[in-house]
Amino acid sequence: MKITTKGQVTIPVEVRERLGLLPNTEVEFVVEDGHAVLRKLRRSQRRGAKVVAHLRGRGTVPMTTDEILALTRGE
């Protein structure tokens, strides 16, 4: 197997099936003891969790939860 000029490789179907790597599955490469290891990302590492972590603590308006809920409900 060769790496393309874009740095891509094709994961063999046997490996994808064994690891449950479906289309759009997020994976990561890590280096362990001088070897590249492909890992399927856990749910906590997926996009939604990353977005929440990125936005956490970004609120700048000093409102209580009740005040925010009243605004969203049109009260």
Number of strands: 2
**Low-confidence parts, pLDDT < 50 over ≥5 residues?**
none
Secondary structure category: alpha+beta
**Strand order within the widest sheet?**
1-2
Q: What percentage of the residues does DSSP assign to strands (E)?
A: 15-25%
Distance between the termini: 62 Å
Explain briefly what this protein structure is.
The protein is α+β, with helices and mostly antiparallel strands and 75 residues long.
Describe what you observe in this structure.
β1 and β2 form a beta hairpin. The protein is elongated and about 60 Å long. It starts with 12 loop residues before the first helix and ends with a helix. It contains 3 helices and 2 strands; from the N terminus they run αββαα. The protein has a two-stranded antiparallel ribbon with strand order 1-2. The protein is α+β, with helices and mostly antiparallel strands and 75 residues long.
Task: Outline the secondary-structure elements.
Blueprint: H1 13-19, E1 27-32, E2 35-40, H2 47-55, H3 65-72
Antiparallel strand pairs: 1-2
Can you tag this structure with a few keywords?
75 residues; alpha+beta; two-stranded antiparallel sheet; 3 helices; elongated
